[in-house]
Amino acid sequence: MIHSGQVTLLAAAQVGDVVPARAQMAATLGFHIILACLGIALPSIVLLAEFVGLRRGNEVAMRLARRWSQAMGVTVAVGAVTGTVLSFEMGLLWPGLLRQYGAVLGLPFGLEGIFFFLEAIFTGIYLWSWDRLRPWAHWWSGVPIAVSGIFGAMSVVAVNAWMNQPGGFTQRGGQITSVDPWQVFFNHAAPYEMPHMILAAYMVAGFIVAGIYAAGILRGRRDRYHYTGFALGFVPAAVLTPLQMFVGDTAARSIAHDQPVKFAAMEYVPQTSRQVPEWLAGVYVNGHIYGGLKIPYMDSLLVGFGPGTRVTGWDSVPPADRPPVVWLIHLCFDVMVGLGSLLLLAGLWAAWTWWRRRRWPRPLLFWLLGAVSGLAAIVAMECGWVVTEEGRQPWVVYGLQTTAQAATTNGGVLASLSLVIVMYAVLGTATIAVLRMLARRWRRSDAVASAVPYGPPAVPQDLTTDEAGL
Amino acid sequence: MAADALGAILLTGVTLYAVLGGADFGGGLWDLLAGTTRRGRAPRTLIDESITPVWEANHVWLIFDLVIFWTAFPHAFAAVMTALALPLWLAVGGIVLRGAGFAFRQELTRLPWQRATGVTFAFSSLLTPFFMGTVVGAVATGAVPANASHASLAAWTSPTALLGGFAFVTACGYLAAVYLTKEAHSRGDRRMQAYFTRRAQAAAIVAGALSLAGLATLHGSDPALYARLTGRALPLVVVAGVCGVVVLALLTVGRIRGVRIVAALGVAAVIWGWGVAQYPVLLPGTTVTLSNAGAPHDTLVALVVVFIAALVLVVPSFTLLFTLQSRHLLSAGQNGTAPATASVAQTRPRPHEEQTSGMRAAVLGLVAVVALTPRRRRHTAPHDRTDTHRRSR
Hints:
The complex is a heterodimer.
Chain A: H1 5-13, H2 18-55, H3 59-92, H4 95-128, H5 135-164, E1 169-172, E2 175-179, H6 181-185, H7 190-218, H8 224-258, H9 260-267, E3 278-280, E4 283-285, E5 288-290, E6 293-295, H10 298-304, H11 326-357, H12 364-390, E7 395-397, E8 401-402, H13 403-406, H14 413-451, H15 460-467
Antiparallel strand pairs in A: 1-2, 3-6, 4-5, 7-8
Helix pairs in contact in A: 2-3, 2-5, 2-7, 2-12, 2-14, 3-4, 3-14, 4-5, 5-7, 7-8, 7-12, 8-9, 8-11, 9-11, 11-12, 14-15
Chain B: H1 2-32, H2 41-51, H3 55-72, H4 74-83, H5 85-107, H6 111-140, H7 159-186, H8 190-221, H9 223-229, H10 234-253, H11 259-278, H12 297-326, H13 333-337, H14 357-363
Helix pairs in contact in B: 1-2, 1-3, 1-6, 1-7, 1-11, 1-12, 3-4, 3-12, 5-6, 6-7, 7-8, 7-11, 8-9, 8-10, 10-11
């Protein structure tokens, strides 16, 4: 690790655009990551529904798979373009990072390109070949999407992990002289960041699906269609949640070792010491923690399984090398863990009831939990990103390059930030509006289909002409 | 040596993005010019159905090119992204609005919303190629300094750069019109074939005129580049011209077979002509060349490996996608309505109605898809499936 005074000096000299650049990166990444989660995990859930539909002749699951694939068409398109924005932003916002380390961190991105290709190609085939291919052939055409989604996620997360634990290259006189692609990809943070994000993606997608159908059930739509939709999202997400808790716990312990300052901010450890307490919530201002719940020895216990474990505090580095907003990191970390635990409880509740009674839990509270589970998973995942990104500050490449050094000097970031905020507000609203409109259309077609049990078969065009306002 | 290989890979990526993704943008141009709701219905349907299953895959070439550029030539990339931030942002804006507008239009059924998203898609389809064209024009004319530290307006608003923008829009429209002519032909839609033939011819003539105008301005503004274009890059320039003439001739006599390849070849020749004229300099007007733009040898070798892996995995997949597309096995219309009627009973396989050996050959080696066999073919004429549900214009 290099901690040179020269670095901080340089940072101060060109601090101009770094704040709006970070805001813009946060906004666009925070938006895209939700769609990225859907891109990684939704295909698997759709495939699961189609599998159940084909294997068990479950007509309801089949109908859900079809409809979800239509919604997927929208989210994939929006995800593809917002992902492109991020690719451009690497250069438009962080030319300093690429000038210095582009030759290193570009390699995982190159691999990601391959998986993105496969994803896009097979999405094109899967989405548009319903009824045109044999049922199982159609199902198989979706498998490469799910597989390349996972590998694509690994590649992108490899870059972020590398920024947290840079390695696999040698640098002489400010120039990269040699690169070991293997070590770049499988850097020190990769083993915990990759599974953490991929599991998060599956949780987000699964709980979003579950949340939508739980909300429908709460509104009185207690039919097989809604329970099947809920189950297809909830079960995989809930099954993965305990695994995620384990991976997250391992990640936190590794961060205590790899990035002690980030960990100190996550857990409010100002001074390096033993018998460190765990703070739940609380706001740290000027050396005081307001409104937090203190559990003695707990942090030391969590880090090293004994109260005597020494935990490094942020006093281990000079103030300039510490993350600027400690309370944000801590609160986001707590929110992430808290919401994750809540989702874990929801899953355990369902598992318990299923084990004892072979049915879903009946209490309203469970379905309320289910209805907010999608939102909870999204918030938890976003908080996780705030922790890892904010906690790495002031570095963009941990210990090597500051974010200020990486930021562009093009002088127009405030303008692009404003443009992006307006555009993404419209884009987000429109995406949700279109998805809701699809749901309304589906509901209406179900209503008509079931309204005429003895009459002539329902003609789908009837609904759609109505929809078209003719 | 490795740097040269990467230069070639980057140029290949740019070429593929231009001839595949560029045509998708060109589709937006013709959508914009298709006229009123009633009149534009047939061409818009054809455009929509041709672009829908493939545009996202074609678009990935851009991502791939960006990554190759910044990984192999980080210094040059940082300079370009800094100096030309404004046109690049506008191009990105076009990409976002185009993709979102297109995807939303597909799902919307109310005419005003279809119109709004359709215009967004069509108009933004012009933005991206135009500003990309100015970016390429700015780079080619040496307007990007090696250590660019701020955005420059003058760099991309020179006559040559602006001409580059217009040339890109026209080239995209040209490719799209040629591809759509072929698509209409394969569907047996004579009216649309004639419609897009006229547009392809017009675009070819405009593109040719713009290219000559571009050469003429270069003669005055950048004699060095002009000399190389008419020197060692001359064969490629000639190929480009010949391809344009051949396409015009083929379209005029109504021989559609092979016309897409020739049109794409013409555009590729222009791009490679630019590459050859500039070689080995990466940023003209500076000392930045392919070999000193920042990446160590290991990175370049790794990127070559990545590119080979990409070819091995991506080319068969693309072949499959385009094969299915050309056999009309991928269609936009069916996805939307089906749920009301979709049932397991309906998705049971039926006896095959089609030879599948050709397709199977295309997918050989792809485990996941060897089993793909088309169930039935829908050879409805376009006007029959201007679906009541989606396009109630």
